[in-house]
Amino acid sequence: MNTFIDLSLDIYEGAPTFANDPECHVEAYHTIDSLGYNMTRLSLSTHQGTHLDAPFHFVRGGKTVEQLDLHKCIGEALLIDLSHKQPKEALRVEDFLPFEAGIVKGARVIYQTDWDRQFPNPHYFSDFPYMTLELAQWLASREIGMIGMDVPTPNPVDFDPVHQALLGAEMVIVEGLANLRHIPHNRFFFMAAPLKIKGRDGSPVRALAMVEEGER
């Protein structure tokens, strides 16, 4: 029998995000007392919390969220444990070479740094282990379908060239994952479907790992 591990950060009123992004608001719009039912108004970025980047996020004319091949973000994934990496330490090609056999065309690859433990502290958005441009280019050359991570973005400084390399290869990026340390094996079934937001650049996701019950 299968069980699920929630890999998502919470969305709540005032949840932190990058300085240039819209603020996150989760507000009661109707209540049972006022109108007979509860309803909530959401105001948030398409890149709030655990979310998905479509190529259009950085690539002019790139695929938008509703155009994505959902096979890229649903299916078997390879988990790479890089939890030994320190704050602000570079993630390099050599860190991924031991797993090279699984980093192939169409693969879903996720790396674990355990940086989600730092959420919601301000340094969560600045001090995480970061992907080098060389690594981004190497992953793009492998033609993988998805790269996932438990940090808020691949690189906080060279964000433009790194995103260009990944999204330019029509890769899906899933950012802000959580609880990867609870996954018992480095191969697992992963799900992170976006909202069907027409013509836009990204979407919050409810990311899940499906594992055999008792393996956690």
Automatic annotation (TrEMBL):
* Pfam families, sorted: Cyclase
Origin species? Paenibacillus sepulcri
From which residue to which does any coiled coil extend? none
Q: What is this protein called?
A: Cyclase family protein
